[in-house]
Amino acid sequence: MLKTGHKSKTSSPNASMRGIRVVLRKELADYFNSLRFLLLMGIILATSVLAAYSGIANMRELSAGTDGEYAFLLLFTNAGGSVPSVVSFLSFLGPVVGLVLGFDSINGERARGSLSRVLSQPIYRDTVINAKFLAGVGVISIIMTCLWLGIMGMGILLTGLVPTASELVRMVLFLAVTILHIALWLAVSILFSIVFRQSSTSSLCSIGVWIFMSIFVGVISTGAAGFFHPVTGSSSEAVLYANERLAYLITRISPSVLYGEAVNILLNPMIRTIGPITSLQLDGMVSGFLPLRESLLLIWPHVVGIIAAGTACFAAAYIIFSRQEIRA
Amino acid sequence: MSEPIVRLQGLKKQYGTVLAVQDLTLEIQEGEIFAFLGPNGSGKTTTFLMMMGLTTPSGGDVHVCGYHPAQNPIEVKRVVSHLPDNLGFYEDLTAAGNLRYTGALAGVEPEIVEHKIEKLLRRVLLYNDRDKPVGQFSRGMKQRLGIADVLIKNPRLVILDEPTLGLDPDGAKELLAMIHELSREQGITVLLSSHQLEHVQQISDRIAIFKKGEMKACGSIHSLAQQMQAGETECCSLSLLQDGGFLDFVRKLEPVAEASAQNGGYRITYARGRWQEIAAAMANGGYLLTRLGTEDGNLREIYRHFFVE
């Protein structure tokens, strides 16, 4: 039982649902009317469509080796020329969408003073945070689905390829994982907006975490791996392996890395393993596509990791918010 | 007498080492207009938040409309409206939009909410501005919108935190008259706070005076004045025909405790019941009175008595 002690037996059960519906509608309306939403949508759509478009250029050569099977998926994973692929764009920019949507969700209302007025109405306190999170996830889903459909449509028009059923399933799963990943960052930014009273502080902290997770985690992991398992010219295979393994382990604290690996495996059935493997393990391997079930098995830990991190952030935000003093 | 609508018993709130509210015991009857008077930081807002269940008391007991706000916040919020001192409207929503949101949160049926919004906006003289974003409103308009906002859910008790804050004297007077009328028309209990006594004096049935988290006195203006009579000084204000060196002169008189120039006249505080001695001395000194006013029972005195120590 929380200190503020809501959820009484006597109050009607639909008070909570009604509150969520009302706040959700208001939050969604706010998002759609905001310049922030238009800007985000514009940036994400423009970069991703550009990435997909330039990826199409050398698709023919790439898909030649596989008789054009799963060629449609190259739309997302293929980097054409100097432009990175859609997937790498999304693993880098996706978090920004979540952060920008959520960084002032609670402290902005607190600063305007509207929080205490809203909480003076007969709704539960957690209604506000639940509805805000749901609204954010809704907006993320809308942006990502638009983008996903846009890229597919462009792919169909420009290449003449039509996705097969198994390609479609993989792309739907890709969309789902993308939304989950961005929702995790939304939870992070909502948590910061509760912990910090100033929206400038919370936005800077969110951006700090994002930069750390997307850039510095790689640097740190190689550094730490080199420190614990130094590799020299004469190092044994075991040391090399340990070094690589440790580096991988460390980068995986970053949800963006998890996301990148997960969607790459989903969209590229040729990938059959992640992390270092020895040449012994490669011996006698038959090259071919991994069935969907096997691909899912590979990325399951990643997906669980993303969901767990998101849930942990949201739970922390929920608990802190429920116990926080309303007045600043 | 019927069950009081608000009952506080030994209420306490502590923030770290600071006692924001200490040992507050108070009963408010249905239909009353009750004012909390005190400087900023004297515990008025904290008490309101505890009554709304937005802050948990550190000790003591709160009953509002028969419910415990800490255990039954939803039930309390259904029948009690609260207007925070910073109002907190959504600036990009229109006046009607803000009321609509409050109404929806409060669970007012959609069929009647539009009708109510129209009625309330007309009542607070904002009907012609209903489609303007609140960001364009003046302070006074926002305060009036606040009155409409708290009434949208048919409350039994309305809590207004500093409703006259930042208003010019005319605006404040108008707003208070509006609060008074609405309370009397609909039989709503009103609990308001202010640090300006002239404001609360106009409409309040009873006043509680707060200082540093403690309630120093409570009662009607009349009874507060009587409580103050127990003091040892009284004062008067006066004007003179010709006043050269008057302050120095009057300060030397034995019963006079304090004297100051004020509004072209003078204000002196002296030992209770010794006015005649002063008047005689002034006549001897050649100071002729053109005007004499006593301030007995005036709220200014009450305020000085309780706050300026």
Concise summary:
The complex is a heterodimer of chains A (328) and B (309). Helices cover 73% and strands 0% of the residues of chain A.
Structure, described:
The complex is a heterodimer of chains A (328) and B (309). By secondary structure, chain A is mainly α. Chain A has one domain (13-323). Helices cover 73% and strands 0% of the residues of chain A. Chain A is built from 14 helices and no strands. Chain A has helices spanning 14-33, 35-56, 59-64, 74-77, 86-102, 107-112, 114-119, 125-159, 165-195, 199-228, 237-251, 255-267, 279-282, 292-323. In chain A, helix 2 packs parallel to helix 8 and helix 8 runs antiparallel to helix 9 (165-195). Chain A is globular. The two termini of chain A are 24 Å apart. Mean pLDDT of chain A is 86; it is low at 1-11. The two termini of chain B are 37 Å apart. In chain B, helix 6 (169-186) runs parallel beside helix 7. Chain B has helices at 44-51, 73-79, 95-106, 110-123, 139-151, 169-186, 197-203, 221-229, 246-252, 275-284, 299-307; strands spanning 6-15, 18-28, 33-37, 59-64, 80-83, 157-160, 189-194, 206-211, 214-219, 233-240, 256-262, 265-271, 289-294. Chain B is elongated. In chain B, strand 8 (206-211) and strand 9 (214-219) form a beta hairpin. By secondary structure, chain B is an alpha/beta fold. The chains are: A mainly alpha (328), B alpha/beta (309). Chains A and B meet through helix 1 and helix 7 of A and helix 1, helix 2, strand 5 and helix 3 of B.
